[in-house]
Amino acid sequence: MTHRNSTSRIHRAFELFGILGAALLCVAAFPTQAQDTSRIARVTVYPGSATVERVAKVPAGARSLTLACLPALLDAQSLQINADAAVRVGEFNVLTEDRDVVTACASPLDGRIRELEDQIAGVKAEASALQLVDGYLRSVAHTGTGDEATTPAAGTRAASPTPAQITATAEVLRKSGQDSFARTHQLKRKQEALELSLKPLVAERNRVASQRARVVSVTINLATERDAELRLSYQVRGPGWQPTYHATLDATKSTVLLERQALVAQNSGEDWGNVQLTLSTGQPGRATQGQLPRPWWLNVAPPPVGAPAPAPAMALAPMIATTSGTMGGLRSEEAMPTFDVSAIDKGFATEFAVPQRITVPSSGQRVTLALGNHSAPATLITRAAPAMEEAAYLVAHMAQPPGVWPAGPAGLYRDGAFVGTGRIDFGTPSAGAPAGSTSLSFGRDELVTVVTEAPPGIQGTAGFTGSTIERKTRRAYSVQNRHTTGITLQVLHAAPVSRNEKIEVESRYQPQPTELTWNRSPGTVAWQQPLAAGATAQFSAEHTIRYPKEVELLERQ
Q: Distance between CA atoms of 72 and 199, rounded to whole angstroms?
């Protein structure tokens, strides 16, 4: 018997080994699916779009890899797959589906939310139990207040409790009620704290769910000889960056400290956590080819036959709508953020590499990065336009510093105090600034007094000389420097400009202006001169306008 039992056990063992071997062969016959452990390693942000690079670990023997829960704004045509030499990459497919049907795309906040909800349910259950205890204590206290009690069985009067029993019962009820009320209050406070912790988690989960109503999955067929890395890059629409600056004027040293800042924002549907960020001035979303000239032909028009039919407008309308929609969307998305420490010239674009790793949530929140500063010498001018406003403003001209300085808004500070906002743009000439420089206005100069004086007699006179009307106008200005140091004063004045040969203009100035076409604008004259501390300067302009009396003068001022 023992021998037979041993033989049967051996046969059963061989059968079991056969089943396991067949199972292993079946497993080996099917491709091995690598688990998605990808992470975002690098992001290059453009004005209005971004290129995201994901890195995934691929184990040896893997035959396919699926990267799930990618943003629906992913541009499938921009997909690029690169891998180590140990990985051979085959075909891939892209699938877009609803987020709710993909279990792998469940929010990581769901577990924490369920935990808090369970804790709140436990608190409510304990509070309900305490309500039962409170009701019982109230019934006992109500029964104990009666002077007499009757036994239901015999119908006889029970003996009245002794004073010691009453005292003991009252003490027990008091202690139990006090503990119950104190515990109820503690549970109420605990429930409030749990609900306060739950509220932002639910709001964040709902925000992510609304942004990622649909998700994209990319499945890649591959052959892996050993453990390796695979990199998937794709472009998404929506993110963007723009430079912003702080400009601080030191009036005593005539220098401006420019602080570069980076503003980055995105709502692509996936958070960028601890990524290497690069900012580029390129714009991949723009057309890759400019418009070509259309043929210009001439022909003899046929003789008219009745009223001409109106030209069809529907053929051009879709083109206009598409073009304006694209450009409009680009402009609305360009209001984004960032700047750099190291600039890389790519020939057709400039890239700014942020040295530290950055986290940018997918909420549209603007992340501000401080990325260096530059102190630039400045030429200070006190500018006044008395005819427009009896006030003077401090203006600083700065040459463009070395490197690339994209245009952007600037917060302006004068001697440490905030005075307002401006814009730094070295590519567009500023009013009155030399070529290759920009000007910033740092607010009103309260120690310079500007007065528009009324000269003796009538300011404006008009009369006839034969068949010609003649009109004279005179303006006079006075500027006083109440600083303890000298300043460079610039006074602007608008002179009449004739746009018709029948209108004659004659102008006299005292003193003679430095420029008659200031800022390349005909008719805008400028006096510029040093003004010592405590000194006053006088300026006057007299204009004579002549035109035929049969001409109706059109004037804009």
A: 27
**In the chain, what are the domains?**
30-145+165-237 (no CATH), 240-283+326-375+398-434 (no CATH), 448-548 (2.60.40)
Helix, strand, coil shares, percent, the chain, to 5: 25, 40, 35
Q: Which residues sit opposite 462 in a β-bridge?
A: 471
Structure tokens at 134: 């409170």
Farthest-apart Cα atoms in the chain, separation: 150
183 Cβ contact partners less than 8 Å away, ≥ 6 residues apart: 126, 130
Distances from the Cα of 314 to the Cα of 58, 311, 321, angstroms: 54, 9, 11
Please state the separation of Cα 114 from the chain's center in Å.
32
Mean pLDDT over all residues of the chain? 79
Task: Name the nearest CA neighbour of 56 among 43, 68, 72.
Answer: 68
Identify whether the C-beta of residue 89 lies closer than 8 Å to the C-beta of residue 232.
no
| 379-426: pLDDT as tens digits | 999 999 999 999 999 999 998 888 778 888 999 999 889 999 999 888
φ, ψ dihedrals at 52, nearest 5°: -105, 135
Q: How far apart are the first and last CA of the chain?
A: 124
Residue 225, SS3?
coil
- Res. 173 pLDDT band, cuts 50 70 90: confident
| Matching residue, tokens 């949530």 | 361
> b/e per residue, 105-123, with b = 16+ CB within 10 A?
bebebeeebeebeebbeeb
Helices (H) and strands (E) in the chain, counts: 4, 26
Burial degree of 220 (CB within 10 A; 0-12, 13-18, 19+): buried
Taking a C-beta distance cutoff of 8 angstroms, is the pair 10, 40 a contact?
no
Packing angle of the helix pair 163-211, 109-144 (nearest 10 deg)? 160
For 5-17, how does the pLDDT look when each residue is reduced to its tens digit (9 = 90+)? 544 544 554 354 4
pTM reported for the whole predicted model: 0.62
Rounded to 5°, angle at Cα 129 from 127 and 134: 90
Q: What is the CA radius of gyration of the chain?
A: 42
Rounded-to-integer distance, Cα 460 and Cα 477, Å: 16
pLDDT for res 109: 66
Sign of the Cα torsion 369, 335, 204, 102 reads negative
The strand pair at 358-360 and 367-384 is best described as unpaired
The DSSP output letter for 484 is S
Q: How far apart are CA 532 and CA 72, in angstroms?
A: 66
CA nearest to 63, candidates 41, 92, 40: 92
